[in-house]
Amino acid sequence: MCLVAAAFSPVLIFLLRAPQKEPGRMEKISAVRTARAAAGDNITGYAWNNQIGWISFNCENDSSCGVNSYGVNIDSSGAVFGYAWSPNVGWISFNRCGTDDDCGTQDGDTGAPPGSPFQNPGSDNRIAEFNPGNKELKGWAKILSMGNDGWIKIRKEGNDGGQSYGVYVTPAGTGEFEGYAWNGNDDGTGIGWISFNCANESGGCAGQDYKVKAELPQISSVTVNPTFNLECSQLTVSWDASKANSFDVYRSSLSGFAPNNGNKLTSAPLGGGATSYTAPDSLTPGTAYYYVVRAYGVFGHTDSLEVSGATDAICRVDGAAPGSNGIAATHECPNIVNLSWEKPGGSAVSFEIKRCRIDNPGDCDSNTDPLYGDLTAGDGCYYPTVAAGCNGANCGCQTTDFVNNETTKRYKYIIRGTNGIDQGKWSVPSNSIQPCQKLPKWKEVKSQ
Description:
38% of the residues are buried. The chain has 3 domains: 43-214, no CATH class; 218-310, Sandwich (Immunoglobulin-like); 327-418, Immunoglobulin-like (Sandwich). Helices cover 0% and strands 33% of the residues. By secondary structure, it is mainly β.
C-alpha cells in the first residue's frame, strides 16, 4: 500500500452508505470490536469526509457514551490514543496496541504504520503525536474495517509526494483543529481528504458548522480574600480548574489590565495541582487589587475572568515576634490588669477589647469562644476609651473590671482595632492572667 495525496478525492471501489451532513448517532458495525475510551478524553467534535461523512471524536458528541464509550485523548507528552467513530466505516483507531499489548489487528488496534513517522514502536507505542510547541499533529490513524487500505496520514512527511497538508491546533487560543488528513492508495482507492474544521472549506462554516476541538483548561470559582493573620497586607487568590498542567497569576492595581510579564506574580508556573497563591510582598491596607489566573494545558492556555479583592483597612493586632500574642497582660494586686499591644498598621484610631474568664480547661483558647464578652462601660479598657491609649506604636490600658472574688479567677483578652467604620480582625487570645494571686494560708503548728 502507498499513500499518495492528491488534489481531489478519489472514488471508492467498495460500497458505502451515502453520507449526510448532519451528525448521526452511533450504529455498531459488528465486524469491529467495541472501542473503549480512557477516562478524561480531551478531544471532541466532528471531522468531515465527502465519502464517509461525519467522523465523531467523542461519544459525548451524540450522547452515546452509555451505549459505547469512546473518544480520543492527547496526553501531557503529546501522545495521541483512543478511537473515533464513523457510522459508515466504523472505528478509526489511534492505538498501535490493543488491550493485550500484542500490537495485532485482531484486538482493535492498528499494528505498525506503513511508513514514517512511528513505523518503529517507541516506548509508549504511539502512532500519532501532538507538538505543543508548533501546535501540529503528525503520524497516523487507521480505519479498522478497511484493513491496510484504511491508513490515514495526519501530516505530509518530507519524502511524501503530492501537495502539503496537515492538521494543527489554531494559534487563536480556541483549541480548534484545522487542516486536512489524507487516506489514499496507489491503486486509486481511499476516501481522500478528511477536514477537521468547516473553516477549511471554500464556503466556510455557513450552514455546516463543524470542527474537531481540544479541551482547553477551564478555570472557575476564582476568589480573592485577605490572607489569614495578614489581612491588611496580603491577599490570597484561589481557584478551581480542570485540564490544567500549570498556572501563572497576574495582579494589578488597575481594573481591565492585560496580563503580561510586568504584572506576573509567579516567578515560575505553579504545578497543575495548585489551587491558590499568595504573593510574598506587602500590600497597602484598605486597597483593592485585581487578579487574573492563567491555566496552561496541552493545547494552550485559558485566562480567568478578572477578579478583585481588597486588603483590610485595619491590620490585626499581633506581636512583632513570630508566635507571640497580639495583646499581653500583667497584673497588680489587688484588682488591676495591665494590657499592652503594638499599634497595628492601617487606619485604626481606637480599640475594642473583650475578656473571657477561664472556668474550665479549654475555655478562652479561641478568639471565637462565646465566653468572651464586653467590659463594663467606664472601665479603663472599655471601648472607645482606649482611643488615647497609644504612645507612638506602643499602646496600653488598665482594667479594674472585677468584683467580689473575681480577682482570684484567671482571664484572657482579645483586641481589635477600629476607625469608627471598619473593624479589624480579633487578635489571638492574650496570655492568661489572674488579677491578684491568692496568698498561701499559714497555720501555726506547735513544736513537739
